[in-house]
Every structure is written in structure tokens, then in C-alpha cells.
Design a protein that fits this description.
- By secondary structure, this protein is of the alpha+beta class.
- The chain has a single domain (about 1-130), classed as Aminopeptidase, CATH 3.40.630.30.
- The protein is about 30% helix and about 25% strand.
- It has helices spanning about 10-25, 30-45, 95-110, 125-130; strands spanning about 1-5, 50-55, 60-70, 75-85, 115.
- A five-stranded mixed sheet has the order 1-2-3-4-5, sandwiched between helices.
- Strand 3 and strand 4 form a beta hairpin.
- Helix 1 (about 10-25) packs across helix 2 (about 30-45).
- The longest helix has 15 residues, at about 95-110.
- It is globular, with a radius of gyration of 16 Å.
Length: about 150
Amino acid sequence: MITIVKADQQHLESLAPLFDAYRVFYEQESDLASAREFLSQRISRNESTVFMAFSDDQAIGFTQLYPLFSSVSLKPMHLLNDLYVDASFRGKGIASLLLNEAKRFALENGSKGLSLETHNTNPAQALYERLDWEKDEEYLHYFWKATS
């Protein structure tokens, strides 16, 4: 049985390895201690909301949402920044459960909606579109990268 829970500090030991694996997936060096500390800070400061998927007692996936605000609509919104499912559990609907939990959370919190960005080759695009996410064809997104 799959359950979805909102993560808190008590979940860090099972969440941090998933978060570290997510970062490694995106070609970052593994750093479990830093991953745990990053998550601990986000959760303790209420800077993000993390939902975790469990199969029995095993943590198998997560999504992390960051709060944003829309000046034009005068409403809060959320950035779905991270979505990860352990490779051995992919293709079993876990990502759909996590995405739907994020949508439920947004609705309950009066959010304008959820935003996400992904690489243009990411096969998860089909999942997003199946779950009523719309590809933004109207606006361009830019990013400024700080260099040291």
C-alpha cells in the first residue's frame, strides 16, 4: 500500500537519501549530510513543503514545493521544484500520487496554482499533461546565473 505524508523533521532520515539520489540524478556529487541539512532548514523554517511517498515503511519518492506570490493576481502560488521516485518504483503511479497531493495542497491553501519547469527532453512531460498541467507556449522564461 502506498501512502503520502507531509514530511517533517522526523522524516529526515528517510527523506535525505531520496533527496541525495535526486541530486545525483541531476549530475551533482552525492553529499548526504548536506542534503539532510538543506532539507532540515527548509522544513524547520517553513520555506518548503515536502510530500513523501511510502510503500509500507520504505520511503520511495517525494516532491518539494516552494511558496511564491503572483503580484498580478494578488494570490500565492507554489513552485513544484523537485519530484523524484526511486527507480525501482517508477511506472507504478507514484509520481501521479505525489503530483495530485501537491495539487490538493495548493487548492487547500488558496494557491493560484503550481508552476514547474523541466528539461525539454524529460519524458515526464506526458505525465504532467495527462494530469492537466499545461505547457506554457505564451511566455519565455529567463534565468540569470550568479558567478563568483
